[in-house]
Design goal:
Blueprint: E1 3-6, H1 13-24, E2 27-30, H2 31-40, H3 44-55, H4 61-74, E3 80-83, H5 89-98, E4 103-108, H6 111-119, E5 122-124, E6 130-131, E7 148-149, H7 156-170, H8 172-179, E8 183-187, H9 193-206
Parallel strand pairs: 1-3, 1-4, 2-3, 4-8
Antiparallel strand pairs: 5-6, 5-7
Bound molecules: adenosine monophosphate.
Amino acid sequence: MNIILLGAPGSGKGYISNLLIDEYGFQHISTGNLLRENIKNNTELGRKAQEYMAKGDLVPDSLVLEVLKNAISNNLGKGIIFDGYPRTIEQAKELDKLISIDLVVSINVPESVILERISTRRVCLNCSAVYSANDYNKLVCEKCGGQVIQREDDKEEVVINRLKKYEIQTKPLIDFYKEQNKLINFDNNGESKDSFEKLKNVINSMK
Ligand code: AMP
């Protein structure tokens, strides 16, 4: 079964991905992580993508599709969580051509919580582990020993643009998937245990 996690930057897509991976062993495709990997490896694609990511704009579809297609072909036949893709209706239509989607989880978090979360979010440059709130002063990743940094695009002025882009370009996907009866809501404001139990019930009933 294949699941899309749909939510604003900082809504907890990575966190919910990890809960689902621990519970069910899904494969995880995060287009943001894949693009950052290309930037780290200084590939041509990474250099092109960086221009857009640094400003908080969406990377052009042709570049995102290239990393997406590779990732899907490496994970065919396994259950996949899509984290950060699709971000536009056009991307959703492209995804439909590649794979069938069973469930879309729409993550709801108030914007004030998002801004607070992102300002304290730190990530490992090496393995992409995320640190927040209590341990955002960490300098070394406890999983792999890599350097822990604040993402350039988590800085306030860029985040504001990313949230704007989400409202305009990505939010219409909620109705797109609602019309297909694939959408469920996930409230991720602090205590997310009940939301996760509800999500597990839905997934278990579909298996
Ligand atoms: P994320 O890690 O998902 O927050 O993504 C970080 C940045 O990567 C975004 O702000 C975009 O610039 C770019 N990006 C990630 N996924 C996509 C996508 N599906 N379409 C366009 N740009 C993307």
